[in-house]
């Protein structure tokens, strides 16, 4: 594994000139991808069509490059204790081989990032952070792990991440194991949701050591494959070739966004940010206020006091799903209002703003617009008829439960 | 990405509309614009009979990812809109210069138009 240059992405908007390139950049260019700046990286927005890529993931499989995500290893005798202090979740309780969705919060309870943390061993964890927050999360973990017998290592540059998502993902990923290694293929098939296992995968350029995780961000069954950055292209090309007969296509960040929105999953910077605690986002369950240390005493973690107070008080706003009844989708930042006048008519002067859309798009799977929005709690009940100010016109919406889409036969 | 084409018989605007030389003139958006938008899912076009002014916003083109305003390249009266494209906007992606036309205008006056070469230079091709 070779060291990569350590120019770090920042949260600042980039001009596209300073964006980092994924280890798969040349593959994206060769596939004719439309590239976009995201989280300090230049990534594939789409290869052919947003809709086709979205549908492929719902019906067959899609292959995503997620190498922009941050990977931070926390290891040592007190790695679990350090993470219990640094994050809102209870990582000590995670069995080796399993993963948790969790968050890192500020002292005031605000969400710094949402994370997936894999417990690779008794004393070893892999923290996966969002691209734009990776550097910040790594820095915070170093700070918060001080005083614990644990080391924090940013593995982002050395690690590539590709995701195979969709109903045929299991078949495709099982097929990446050595034909002679029946146990490895079975390990893929037996892998539970939110579990991970190290496996050797075959590529056209020889075997590669991979961490194979059954996690994803699409609402489908799927796998995320962590490999050394230098081997990413070998794996990418092998998966494309092996998956093509089963309908797998490369899928870009545009499809990833519409898929996660249908699945009701938050995106940092939209549903989550430093003005939000996990409770407004409906994710209070990730906050483990009852964590205890080895002696059974309440465990202090960063943000605990603020989050405990926040849980005890009524939220000022709550995250809801909105189903669009018209054709024009709401977009992030648009005002949610109490309807007055004709649906689709001009938003009246007196229209009271009661919330803000955080994400919105036409749903490729459902055929109508969908959106997530923060609204005032008294207007958040399922079935509440509201409107969104879509560029001056009040487009009718109704509050619906999240997620918008659930895959058939949840495993 | 397919190589964007700029048919020689058309004129263009800096806002990525095209217009042919007939009267009433047929107007649409360029392949470059359609490609940048991604899959187009919704079109809002002016009504037949609407008076449009060169350079003014007269509709919108919405894709899965974003929305763009549609500008009129000319001043005049709208005489026809492409109902087939409203019903199935994907045709704007697949055939932006033919079946994916958007509306026709009885032209009184043209705005600032670009030649194919000027438009190609404008979009950096």
UniProtKB/TrEMBL annotation, chain A:
Gene Ontology CC terms, in alphabetical order: cytosol; glycine cleavage complex
Residue ranges of every copy of the GCVT N-terminal domain listed in the record: 24-291
Catalysed reactions listed for this entry: N(6)-[(R)-S(8)-aminomethyldihydrolipoyl]-L-lysyl-[protein] + (6S)-5,6,7,8-tetrahydrofolate = N(6)-[(R)-dihydrolipoyl]-L-lysyl-[protein] + (6R)-5,10-methylene-5,6,7,8-tetrahydrofolate + NH4(+)
InterPro entries reported in the protein's UniProt record: GcvT, GcvT/YgfZ/DmdA, GcvT/YgfZ_C, GcvT_bac, GcvT_C, GCVT_N, TrmE/GcvT-like
Residue numbers binding substrate: 224
Keyword vocabulary terms for this entry: Aminotransferase, Methyltransferase, Transferase
GO molecular function: aminomethyltransferase activity; methyltransferase activity; transaminase activity
Compositional bias (Polar residues): 1-11
Enzyme Commission no: 2.1.2.10
Region feature (Disordered): 1-23
Entry annotated with the keyword Methyltransferase: yes
GO BP, one annotated term: methylation
Residue ranges occupied by any Aminomethyltransferase C-terminal domain in the UniProt entry: 317-405
Record-stated family: Belongs to the GcvT family.
Protein's job: The glycine cleavage system catalyzes the degradation of glycine.
Self-association and partners: The glycine cleavage system is composed of four proteins: P, T, L and H.
Name of the protein: Aminomethyltransferase
Biological source species: Cellulosimicrobium protaetiae
Lineage: Bacteria, Bacillati, Actinomycetota, Actinomycetes, Micrococcales
Primary gene name: gcvT
TrEMBL record, chain B:
Record's keyword terms, sorted: Lipoyl
CDD domains, per the entry: GCS_H
Lipoyl-binding domain segment(s): 24-106
Presence of the UniProt keyword Ligase in the record: no
Cellular component GO terms held in the UniProt record: cytosol; glycine cleavage complex
Family: Belongs to the GcvH family.
SUPFAM superfamilies: Single hybrid motif
Task of the protein: The glycine cleavage system catalyzes the degradation of glycine. The H protein shuttles the methylamine group of glycine from the P protein to the T protein.
Pfam families for the chain: GCV_H
Protein name in the entry: Glycine cleavage system H protein
Subunit structure: The glycine cleavage system is composed of four proteins: P, T, L and H.
In-chain residues carrying the UniProt-annotated modification N6-lipoyllysine: 65
Cofactor section: (R)-lipoate
Matching InterPro entries: 2-oxoA_DH_lipoyl-BS (IPR003016), Biotin_lipoyl (IPR000089), GCV_H (IPR002930), GCV_H/Fam206 (IPR033753), GCV_H_sub (IPR017453), Single_hybrid_motif (IPR011053)
Annotated cofactor note: Binds 1 lipoyl cofactor covalently.
Listed PANTHER family: GLYCINE CLEAVAGE SYSTEM H PROTEIN, GLYCINE CLEAVAGE SYSTEM H PROTEIN-RELATED
Organism: Cellulosimicrobium protaetiae
BP GO terms, sorted: glycine decarboxylation via glycine cleavage system; protein lipoylation
């Amino acid at each position: 594994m070779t060291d990569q240059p350590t120019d770090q992405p920042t949260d600042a908007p980039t001009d596209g000139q300073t964006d980092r390139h994924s280890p798969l950049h040349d593959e994206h260019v060769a596939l004719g991808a439309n590239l976009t700046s995201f989280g300090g990286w230049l990534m594939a927005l789409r290869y052919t069509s947003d809709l086709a890529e979205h549908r492929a993931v719902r019906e067959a499989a899609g292959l995503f490059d997620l190498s922009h995500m941050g990977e931070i290893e926390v290891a040592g005798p007190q790695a679990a204790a350090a993470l219990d202090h640094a994050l809102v979740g209870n990582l000590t309780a995670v069995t080796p081989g399993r993963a948790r969705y969790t968050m890192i919060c500020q002292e005031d309870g605000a969400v710094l990032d949402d994370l997936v943390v894999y417990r690779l061993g008794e004393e070893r964890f892999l923290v996966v952070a969002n691209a734009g927050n990776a550097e910040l999360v790594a820095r915070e973990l170093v700070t918060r792990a001080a005083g614990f017998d644990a080391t924090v290592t940013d593995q982002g540059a050395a690690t590539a991440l590709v995701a195979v998502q969709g109903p045929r993902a299991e078949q495709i990923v099982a097929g990446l194991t050595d034909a002679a290694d029946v146990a490895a293929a079975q390990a893929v098939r037996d892998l539970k949701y939110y579990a991970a296992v190290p496996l050797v995968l075959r590529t056209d350029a020889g075997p590669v050591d991979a961490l194979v995780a059954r996690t994803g961000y699409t609402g489908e069954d799927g796998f995320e494959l962590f490999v050394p950055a230098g081997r990413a292209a070998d794996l990418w090309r092998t998966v494309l070739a092996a998956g093509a007969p089963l309908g797998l296509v490369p899928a870009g960040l545009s499809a990833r966004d519409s898929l996660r929105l249908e699945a009701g999953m938050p995106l940092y910077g939209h549903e989550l940010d430093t003005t939000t605690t996990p409770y407004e986002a409906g994710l209070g369950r990730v906050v483990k206020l009852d964590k205890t240390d080895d002696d059974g005493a309440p465990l202090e973690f960063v943000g605990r006091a603020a989050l405990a107070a926040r849980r005890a008080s009524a939220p000022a706003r709550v995250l809801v799903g909105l189903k669009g009844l018209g054709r024009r989708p709401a977009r992030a930042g648009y005002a949610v209002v109490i309807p007055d006048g004709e649906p689709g008519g001009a938003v009246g002067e007196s229209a009271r703003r009661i919330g803000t859309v955080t994400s919105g798009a036409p749903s490729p799977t459902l055929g109508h617009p969908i959106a997530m929005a923060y609204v005032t709690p008294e207007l958040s009940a399922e079935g509440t008829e509201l409107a969104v100010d879509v560029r001056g016109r009040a487009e009718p919406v109704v509050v619906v439960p999240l997620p918008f889409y659930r895959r058939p036969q949840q495993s | 990405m397919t190589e964007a084409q700029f048919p020689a018989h058309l004129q263009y605007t800096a806002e990525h509309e095209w217009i042919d030389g007939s009267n009433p003139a047929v107007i649409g958006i360029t392949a470059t614009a359609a490609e940048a938008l991604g899959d187009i899912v919704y079109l809002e076009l002016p009504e037949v009979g609407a008076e449009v002014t060169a350079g003014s916003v007269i509709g919108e083109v919405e894709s899965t990812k974003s929305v763009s305003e549609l500008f009129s390249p000319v001043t005049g009266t709208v005489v026809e809109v492409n109902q087939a494209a409203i019903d199935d906007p994907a045709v704007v992606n697949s055939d932006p210069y033919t079946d994916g036309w958007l509306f026709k205008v009885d032209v009184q006056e043209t705005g600032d138009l670009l030649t194919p070469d000027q438009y190609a230079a404008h979009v950096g091709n």
